[in-house]
């Protein structure tokens, strides 16, 4: 299962930002990154390589892990529990590993995340058809790997890049993510269709394992990063600050949770529905290619159209469209409807997710004091997202366990899929404020 941070869209968000912003973190960064106007350093290129390998490994097998579990268990609840354990493990990993990343060795956390991903696919390979009986440990492993990697990556990214290099860094990361998102699922589907279920899945999972091992080896060349302050990790400080009147996180946190509600279900449900409708891994791979290609073009178009004054309106339009595209499922779910849903959703998704992502990161880097609390704020952001994902997945499990019929599932998809409207409602005030922050500009240089 591809999480919010390891899917192809995550890279595209960075690519869009490179065309429209001076950097999602505002003007603050580490001392080594400020004032540097040259090309990417060796450490930045190595970080990009590790990110590409992690993204590529997940792109190869992310969607097909759910299909594999479905084929061995034939139960929607199995997929739901797998997602639930993954989201819960990810949230706890972000919170607990925050101390390790801030006070100890963030590079070891990043390497551990890649290594646990390799161990996950090694476990799936070893368990084979029995993988569905080990949902809890497999889900925990996947959440652990994502939590460790993305917490460390976000902090290191903040430190090694500055306003002068983030555009180029985000551009390369986005194009790499888009490339893997368009090619890797198709390659996996083709291999499974060509080699058959048994050998095909073993080859695909084995390729992912090899990619993650390469990622671990490459990460060894990243140098250890020293702490940039002497402040200890404060476990609950940012959660306590939510009680302060006027704290913008009081609106951003519920908005992030609402964003997570849809992601928690749609990240695995749509791909699984495509497979159930077609009974073909190749068709699922082709579906990923088409929707990823549309998304790539949509992010490029959004980069030209979007400017600060259009954020709220664009996000509302996208949220309404995302909800409307679920309605046709009430007249039956088939491949044609799913493809139409995927194409239209991919076309409008940039208008929804880019303001969400940029505005939240702007809040982390809005001043030097906030920047010093970057680890705690990143943890707060990720826990809010995962609380939403847990809530959405819990709703999915309740529905499919009690009444797994098409009508109940459609109402569940509509209810969960309406959460972008709630995200916009909470985020709309901060979107206006963040558009006026220093360093925010459009692709045309407008502020």
Automatic annotation (TrEMBL):
Q: Which UniProt keywords apply?
A: Membrane, Transmembrane, Transmembrane helix
Domain of life from the UniProt record: Bacteria
Q: Where in the cell is it found?
A: Cell membrane
Q: What coarse category fits the chief subcellular location reported for this protein?
A: membrane
The protein's matches in InterPro entries, at most eight in alphabetical order, are given as: MFS, MFS_trans_sf, Sugar_transport-like
Transmembrane spans: 46-70, 76-97, 109-128, 134-157, 169-193, 199-222, 251-278, 284-302, 314-333, 339-363, 383-402, 408-427
Q: What's its membrane topology?
A: Multi-pass membrane protein
Q: Which CDD domains match?
A: MFS (cd06174)
Protein name per Swiss-Prot or TrEMBL: MFS transporter
User: What is the source species?
Assistant: Paenibacillus thermoaerophilus
